[in-house]
Amino acid sequence: MPKTIQGKDSSKASYPLRIQAIRTKGQNVRFFVYLPMPLASALGVEGGEAVSWELLAKDELHLIRLNPASPKTKRRVRRPGRK
Fold it and tell me: What is the pTM of this model?
């Protein structure tokens, strides 16, 4: 089950994670951010997919899919109680 970050809206799913820093001799430090599987699955993200970050504020990033895959289904799912 997704955890929530203290002080954030508890109605939204939140997936806290740590940024990994890779330090290799003779190279600049590289940072990696991992996408949790439940979130990747919900978004339909594929391995190797090209993305870009947009800086909205000092504490907020926006992930942009450069070439999003087309939906695999042609029809929408009907939800109970809706017409």
Answer: 0.55
Q: Residue 64 has what pLDDT?
A: 92
Euclidean distance between CA atoms 22 and 53, whole angstroms: 19
In sequence order, what are the residues at sequence separation of 6 or more whose Cβ sits closer than 8 angstroms to the Cβ of residue 38?
2, 13, 15
Residue among 2, 70, 72, 71 at smallest CA distance from 36: 2
37 — phi, psi (to 5°)?
A: -55, -45
Cα angle value 2/74/37 (rounded, 5°)? 20
* Structure-token pair, residue 68: 């999003």
Residue at token pair 């042609």: 74
Question: Cβ distance 47 to 69 under 8 Å?
Answer: no
- 14-67, pLDDT tens digit by residue? 888 899 999 999 999 999 988 889 888 888 888 888 999 999 999 998 989 998
